[in-house]
Design goal:
With 336 residues, the protein is mainly alpha-helical. The chain contains twelve helices and no strands.
Length: 336
């Protein structure tokens, strides 16, 4: 009886920690959804975060739980995950998120969590305990998602510029101020559909490891799904303004037509990834799309020094969060 009570206490604490990460994910990644729509002046900051949060939560009704299944069942061999692995993964991800938020660097919450899982699993059972196929898809998409965002954003801007070449700038601006609400909503929908599911996946992983959910279940309990979508939406409402400034103002100067093209290219990428069950970075995706839109105007329109700093953060995200997760795993062995 005592063991069950301790296990329940530990599980409740770790679920709360996972929801805290999910909240921080929304807080940290709010810039992905709203930076362009704020920097172009289409919405005020308060309106933008509320707008994005609504679409973050609305994703619960749109996407299947394919990304959650990849994270919950597809990264570590059965039987390896326990409460210590989950604790280490969450601490690794939260620590890296906090550091990058503090310095205003748009890193990936998604890859921080993946890195945390990798580090904690290796600390417990070695690299052989990882499921290489799913992990490799995630690693490959570190390059694919920003590249696809770059290409789609660029192509969208080229197509729009050619199609509206005879329109006046004022008319183009007026139309795309309205259309950017559609693209921002679509991107926020994709953000919720991909990122909330990563936390759903790790909570599902925890419940399976502790016996509160059967490994053979095809979906996690519905309360997990609702609470994770609600947590990321609440985090988005608070917004990470340091990163909004970097994404919306420092990378390149944006007009509504540019914001529309970047968000649409990014949204298409996120929708594809969610359908395929691949946990991609919304940060990488929108950064690639913004750079693509800026570079299409002219290469000098992009502040490549800022972009370079962002890329360095991407490179360090998985190893840094993995290292912290491994340390946290060993510490947790002494705590519970």
């Amino acid at each position: 009886m005592q063991t069950t009570q301790v296990a329940l206490w530990v599980v409740v604490t770790l679920v709360a920690l996972a929801l805290a990460f999910d909240f921080m994910n929304g807080f940290h990644d709010a810039a992905n959804s709203i930076a362009t729509v704020v920097s172009t002046g289409v919405l005020k900051p308060g309106q933008a975060v509320l707008f994005a949060a609504v679409f973050n939560f609305a994703a619960i009704f749109v996407f299947q739980l394919t990304v959650a299944a990849t994270v919950g069942k597809g990264l570590a061999q059965p039987g390896v995950v326990d409460v210590h692995v989950v604790f280490g993964a969450l601490i690794g991800a939260i620590s890296w998120n906090f550091i990058t938020w503090y310095y205003g660097i748009p890193s990936s919450s998604s890859h921080a969590l993946i890195g945390g899982i990798v580090g904690a699993v290796i600390a417990k059972a070695g690299a052989s305990a990882l499921m290489s196929a799913s992990l490799m898809k995630t690693v490959v998409f570190i390059l694919v998602s920003p590249t696809l965002g770059f290409l789609l954003g660029s192509l969208m801007l080229i197509a729009v510029s050619w199609g509206l070449r005879r329109s006046t700038p004022s008319r183009v601006d007026r139309w795309f101020r309205r259309l950017q609400l559609v693209s921002a909503g679509a991107y926020s929908l994709g953000h919720g559909g991909n990122d909330a599911q990563k936390t759903i996946g790790i909570v599902w992983m925890l419940l399976i490891a502790t016996g509160y959910t059967a490994a053979g279940d095809k979906a996690p309990p519905y309360w997990v799904v609702v609470s994770c979508y609600a947590a990321i939406a609440c985090g988005t409402m608070f917004g990470g303004w340091r990163i909004v400034k970097t994404m919306g103002q420092r990378l390149t100067k944006l007009k509504p037509v540019h914001g529309f093209c970047a968000e649409t290219g990014g949204a298409i990428t996120l929708f594809m990834a969610a359908i395929l069950g691949i946990p991609v970075s919304t940060t990488h995706t929108i950064t690639g799309a913004i750079v693509g839109v800026g570079a299409t105007q002219r290469a000098s329109a992009v502040r490549w020094g800022v972009a370079g700093n962002i890329v360095w953060a991407w490179i360090f995200t998985i190893p840094a969060s993995a290292f912290v997760a491994a340390v946290a795993y060993w510490v947790s062995l002494q705590l519970f």
